Amino acid sequence: MTKRMVIMLIAVAIVFGGIFGFQVFKAAMIKKFMSSMQAPPQTVSTTKAELSPWQPKIEAVGSLRAVRGSDLSLEVSGVVDSISFNSGDDVKQGDVLLKLRAADDVAKLESLQATAVLNQLTYDRDLKQFKIQAVSQATLDTDKANLKNAQAQVTQQQAILDKKTLRAPFAGHLGIRAVDLGQYLSAGTAIVTLQALDPVYMDFFVPQQSVARIHIGAAVTVNVDAFQDRTFPGEISAINPKVDASSRNVQIRATLKNPDRKLLPGMYATVDILTGAPENYVTLPQTAITYNPYGDTVYVVDDKGGGAGAGAGAGAGVKSPLIARQSFVTTGPTRGDQVAVLKGVSAGQTVVTAGQIKLHNGSPVLIDNSITPTADAAPAVPLDR
Questions:
Q1: 42-54+279-367: which CATH number, 3.40.50.10490, 3.90.830.10, 3.40.50.300, 2.40.420.20?
Q2: Residue 115, SS3?
Q3: Which helix (H) or strand (E) holds 43?
Q4: What integer pLDDT is reported at residue 312 of this predicted model?
Q5: Which of 87, 254, 289, 312 has the fewest CB neighbours in a 10 Å radius?
Q6: Is 0.70 surpassed by the pTM of this model?
Q7: How are strands ordered across the β-sheet holding 96-100?
Q8: For the chain, which residues make up each domain, given as ranges?
Q9: Rounded distance, CA 274 to CA 21, Å?
Q10: Residues 275, 208: contact at Cβ < 8 Å?
């Protein structure tokens, strides 16, 4: 090998060695740069997924109505002569509430009664004479017809007079009086409302596919905005035998005891229909679920190195970074701020409840539970909001 060839080989080796060394140096620098660009741990709030008893139920909204309720009025017109009740009174069936001026009707009734008495005397006298053949059968028949006609006129006039007296059609609680003495009332004018308040009905609708889960006597619980700290128990008392053709819903009626008269007809209410024995579900706050078109997800926190830091408590300081792993879940029913998770999370796992918007699969996280979202099964709206 000549000297020139040796020099050429050495030069080629130097060139390739330089290129290789540069590539190694470049890879090391890129790795160092990428490691320096790694995202810092994100601070999140977490909770432990736990098994909770869950009562299967159907939720619906509706309104309350009295078992008996009516806006009272009269069939005839006239001037108010007397009022025998006060607003808010409790009355019994048949109690007189109001009378219209009826002096002329009373006088006419007395006249008709006198005619009926005279016809009765005539009939009785002719009946005695008929027995001794003093009058004919035709005369007796005429007397009998006149008597019945007079009695019918008395009954008719008494009915007209009775229409000028308002009586309570059933026992209940009166509302606010809408008329005064001396006022002229047209026929049908509302005078006062009468409501029987114990028990009360709640009418509501459910989808037709839920009818199979509902039966007469099923227990229900009712909530109204006016009494957010109370629930009112009741039971299903009627199911409409047909489905509404426009909405495909079925009307249901529940009966509620109301001894303290807290529930009033016309109130808006929500109802929960209990449809089976309680079941155990893994529950999470609804804020832990990220809802997406391609599937619902949560972030489960795993211990990166198996050391300290997992499940840090409230007010926790800086801990060893943990890893947030994205997991697809299947959600079930909801109640208040809670949601049941059917698949994807097991009891005991730590799940991110706040801060997941800045995470991706594999993100390092630090846990700070000094502020945590609510997970109340029956949250109440403050009345002074």
A1: 2.40.420.20
A2: helix
A3: strand 42-48
A4: 41
A5: 87
A6: no
A7: 165-167, 96-100, 78-83, 184-185
A8: 42-54+279-367, 59-66+200-274, 103-163
A9: 75
A10: no
